[in-house]
Amino acid sequence: MARLFVKIKDQDNVAIAVKDIKAGTVISEDLTALEDIPQAHKIALCDIPRGGEIIRYGVVLGYAIDPIKKGQWINEHMLELPTPPDVDNMEFATNIVTDLPEPPVRTWEGYRNPWGGPAGTRNILGISTTVQCVTGVLNVAVERMKKELLPKYPNVDDIVPINHAYGCGVAINAPEAKVPIRLLKNLSKHPNFGGQLMVVSLGCEKMTVDMLCDEADITPDNVIVLQEKHGFDEMISALMEMADKKLKILNERRRETLSLSELVVGMQCGGSDAFSGVSANPSAGYAADMLVKGGATVMFSEVTEVRDGVYLLANRCVDEQVGKKLAAEMKWYDNYLKEGEVDRSANPTPGNKKGGLANIVEKAMGSIAKSGTSPIVEVLSPAEKPTKHGLIYAATPASDIVCGPCQLASGIGLQVFMTGRGTPYGLAIAPVIKVCSRNEMKELWPDLIDVNAGPVATGDATIADIGTELFNEIIDVASGRKQSFAEKYKLHNDLCIFNPAPIT
Ligand code: CA
Q1: Is the pTM of this model over 0.85?
Q2: CA of 271 relative to ligand 1 center, distance in Å
Q3: What is the rounded average pLDDT of the residues 316-343?
Q4: Which residue in 139, 147, 319, 362 has its CB near the most CB atoms, within 10 A?
Q5: Strands annotated E in 248-337
Q6: CATH architecture of the domain formed by 124-250
């Protein structure tokens, strides 16, 4: 008989239902469901007194508000949230795992870049902007470029305008303005753009071209200022002419066989459910370990979704310096939330809760699983570029559409996205591979989900099986041998950049 529930650690006093369970169902020899239990939701494995610990993943998810009977459904209203872990007294480098799974291959096919660093997974003309005011004109030009220019350059995959809401009407000198500015600057030199910088400015905005570009790059070959042009037609011709020159150069780029050390992969999850931490995220973690073992760089992020398990990450930081930066990023975010008069309980979402995630502690334990077991070699502030290879904690908001651009600015060439409830999320600048946590999700969206980790939840496949399948998918998509569904259908979310500074 297929298993009806999944228990993670021996000490857990709850398990989650693999399928909807009807009241009265005999789940195991000494456990009967006292009420209907929805798929992915928790069932009590023993009586839990008022104030008693509710334990999953071997950690306390919360405390029972009222007594809970063995066989009862435990929903999100029945737990009190524990206090967040103290980030000032964490232990660093106490859990350094070096025994990682061997990757099936150690090379991929990518586009090497003139300045070295991470290689491209795609060949794209990225057009940066200093301010939202230029977006309308640029979009008209890009439509024409795609119709008239792109067909002449078959080796170029796409033309992507980097449109955003920043640039003017903002407190440009506020301390936290460095986040959106750094993001846009790093994004302008994304590895998929092949070193071809093209910048469109209005001319009177607060974010001036010199904030976005290095001095040497500010030339008429790279920068167009709309207020210097005589009317709309001249703007469009200037944009077309510059794009044509850049596309010609990009068209000469060719993929080469490269070592995995030139590949940077981002991990993110969204629309999670209680299976995410059982199937999809651990499978992603396994693939992450294989990538790291092969020399690649893997980033994971989403501060509010690691905050409750941060001590587990601190144990994996290679030294105190890395650990201290991790603590600093957590504190920065605690404060950011406090200023907005919320706390981490603002995450999870209603969908997460419907998917059986009772609170942020449970979500965090599942979320962290996507980082695998490798040591954390570096911690980045939002949108910073890495200086090391290996597993990197890149601090970002957990919001899918904000995490994506931050990781892109940090240089990911591909993102792996785990989901339980389903989202058609995608990025224009790098391909996104979607991994789902349940078979039902793959059945519902067979043409949107790339890898199904559902068989891990039902006990029909191992984490190593799906993790290896995902690793191979990552290599195939990064190498351009395959397109993910989000890429094939061009499912591109808007570029929602992280701006923690005031708007004026
Ligand atoms: Ca997310």
Answers
A1: yes
A2: 8
A3: 96
A4: 362
A5: 256-259, 264-269, 297-300
A6: 3-Layer(aba) Sandwich (3.40)
